[in-house]
Amino acid sequence: MRWMRKWRWRTKVDSICEAANVHIEAKRWAAAGKLLWDAFDLIPEPRERYAETTWVVASIGDVLLGEREWDKARQAFEDAIGLPGGLGNPYLHMRLGQAEYEVGNLGRASEELMRAYMGAGDELFRDEDPKYLSLVAGSARSVKDEL
Questions:
Q1: What's the rounded Cα separation, in Å, for the pair 137 and 114?
Q2: ∠ CA 84-51-48, rounded to 5°
Q3: Could you tell me the pTM of the whole model?
Q4: To 10 degrees, what angle do helices 106-120 and 130-146 make?
Q5: Alpha-carbon distance values, 48 to 13, 17, 73 (Å)
Q6: Is the model's pLDDT at 70 over the cut of 80?
Q7: Residue 56: CB partners within 8 Å, gap ≥ 6?
Q8: Which of 49, 91, 115, 138 would suit a FRET pair with 81, their CA atoms being 20 to 30 Å apart?
Q9: 3-class SS string, the chain
């Protein structure tokens, strides 16, 4: 019976996140954010044990980026990277790097964006503002020049 409860909350979280993604695609940030917090609340304690928490928190970060809430987005992506499956995930490192860039932390932005690039290549940056990949390229040139 316990496994059924686990299955139910996961199914509900998945369903809510799918609905939130529709809002994210349409740039309806407030609606997406509300749904994502509803999904977050369904994840049992301790939330840090579940990969679902990673993806819900990352999606909240995406909403915050869309709302141009750079500091809050940065915190969300830092949190997501510290959750199960987060560390080393190129998408999360890219998003954290973007938030760092927007708050003016170019050194940290460069590090995170480089991690993303090394993990997934330039394909990950295809639909992103070119300024982020330019920072990666500039950082790579600096390292090369130092060698």
A1: 9
A2: 65
A3: 0.90
A4: 90
A5: 15, 18, 18
A6: yes
A7: 13, 17, 36, 39, 40, 43
A8: 138
A9: CHHHHHHHHHHHHHHHHHHHHHHHHCCCHHHHHHHHHHHHHHCCCCHHHCHHHHHHHHHHHHHHHHCCCHHHHHHHHHHHHCCCCCCCCHHHHHHHHHHHHHCCCHHHHHHHHHHHHHHHCHHHHCCCCHHHHHHHHHHHHHHHHHC
Apex CA 129: angle with CA 143 and CA 133, to 5°? 15
Domain boundaries, the chain: 1-79, 88-147
User: How many other C-beta atoms lie within 10 A of the C-beta of residue 120?
Assistant: 15
